[in-house]
Amino acid sequence: MIAEVETYNLLKPLKAFFGFGGFKGNQEAIINNILNKQDTFVIMPTGGGKSLCYQLPAIMSEGTAIVVSPLIALMKNQVDAIRGFSNETGIAHFLNSSLNKSEIATVKKDVLSGKTKLLYVAPETLNKEDNIEFFSEFKISFFAIDEAHCISEWGHDFRPEYRRLRPIIDKLGSVPVMALTATATPKVQQDIQKNLGMLEAKLFKSSFNRENLYYEVRAKQNVIKEIIKYVKQNSGKSGIIYCLSRKKVEEIAEALKVNGIKASAYHAGLDAKERAKTQDGFLMEDIHVIVATIAFGMGIDKPDVRYVIHHDIPKSLEGYYQETGRAGRDGGEGNCITFYSYDDIIKLEKFMKDKPVNEQEIGKQMLSETASFAETSSCRRKFILHYFGEEFNENRCNEMCDNCRHPKQKFEAQEDLELAIECIGESKEKHKVKDIINILTGTLTATGKSYKHDALESWGRGVDHDKDDKFWNAVLRQAIVNGYLAKDIENYGLVKITDKGREFLKHPHSIKFTRDNDFSNAESDHDDDVSSGKGGGTDEVLYAMLKDLTKKIAKQNNLPPYVIFQETSLEEMSINYPITMEEMTKITGVGAGKAAKYGKPYLELIKKHVEENDIERPSDMVIKSVVNKSGLKVFIIQNIDRKVSLEDMAKNKNLKMEDLLTEIETIVTSGTKVNINYYIDQVIDEDKKDEIYECLRESQTDDINAILKELGEDEYSEEEVRLMRIKFISEFGN
Question: Is 471 in the same domain as 565?
Fold first, then answer.
């Protein structure tokens, strides 16, 4: 057994190898513990220096430390970093599925020769029988299980392979284990220790509070436009934008690039070479903004990320905390902006419907906590630290969250809190928040019937407050955060009364709470367009004038108004006030051709309206819309020119026919002519063509359902009408 290592013994190798003059936080005590062959559990927030906790003792110890890591990109990054400190390339290696046979042979040779001090492996690699045989051939100094929250089903990134690590470690003899994570609630912490058989391990838990991070949640409206504005205001700074889908990643990256921002997409659908190139470009600052799915960032050691934006609310608060933790790791500015709509929570719940019931239950509880964090109007820092089991006085937030910077008016909540606690006691502490709210508001559900809730004394006594649950949600949430109540995670989130809550019932006192933030006007994802004209901000007077002008021009040209400009384009003009031809082409549905053909009188009208009413035009007019899927647009136009059948085009691009027609409609409504007569002649007979054409000419709307009704739905298909409408707009509108 190694004798206890004194501080000076650690400072010397720390300086010699890493060039650091001292340790941060618990690092020194952690390293001493593992060098003494003791199991060690490290909970340390992102940026706290977790990696050093196993890197330095590995270099100092006899043998090779095995580091279990979940991502290939993370391993590569760590190995490159260690090699950067040493003259010996073999000092660190990774062993995973990305290596070929000769590379694996090199790794094994270096390990067996004693050169390698750190061997990074994926949990899947560790599970293979021939690898276990190889690991038994050399001395293992210790196991380091990085991102240990992957062990727990209650963690935000559960990996079943992580739960099979302990039996393999046992096969390889008596080896000390270090588990490390940046995010572990008390429940996850217990789960990790139990599964790794290290209940006696010494726990080193650093504070989760990152004082330099500013937390803000915004309503999800015009998100891409808001993101572009934010990035432009922080020009030259490094930032990460997280999205839940690859499609949205690509869309936002494209929008940023179109607006002159050095941005790149990063997701699992890109090949490894492309991802590595993007990662290196970000580290070298050739790329300022990474738009990514959650796969990006684990182990990325870039200290000066100045902002992390969430286009979508994450699936868990652990995920949120870890991702926002990538901002300001150098202690400097770190802004964490999240766009939130409750529709996103509903969408995430739907994604879980095919999972086993217990996983759904866990997932829903985690989502519920995330929604609570987004909607709360009390200190966000206090909320998130409470979630991780840490007490915090909101006065120490120093206005570093939107709720403390712009506080909401508080209300006297003494009687409401008393009523809530009494209700929970009366219903035997056997219910979740939702059930308690139903009792207080007198809402009888199936659960309520079976438990005879309507016979309780507290039944309906809170009905004076908002019937939409928001009021009582806020009261119960703040009661939990302030320690009067607690959620029993083990039992599906049942609400229990704490000692502090019982004391409050005996001796009630004045307490102030705030109402929740209202995100009910936030848009769902499908409304999220770079220049969506939907929602607030429309100049109703200008909009009416633009509609009148459209009717007038349509009449002069003997055409329906929608052929000139669609209503969505007019709406957007009445929000953004374009007064130059270039600005006009930025409006959705207005291409250069259409702007040139019809734009002049619109620009004159808007300019006059702006001057007469002294209107300050939005500065964000400079934001350019993305040419929607420009590669697809070119493909469609070229193939129509070649007279390729629409079925073949759709098949080639893996599109449904209806989606292909939508793309062609977008092309023609923006002012580009296409000639699909060759296809129409094959699929629609002459009489039908004439009938539809006449109907389109006389119709005041381009609404498909209205036109189908007029024609007779039994005789004409939606596809036929859409094809003829494309022909009509292309010939007369462009």
Answer: no
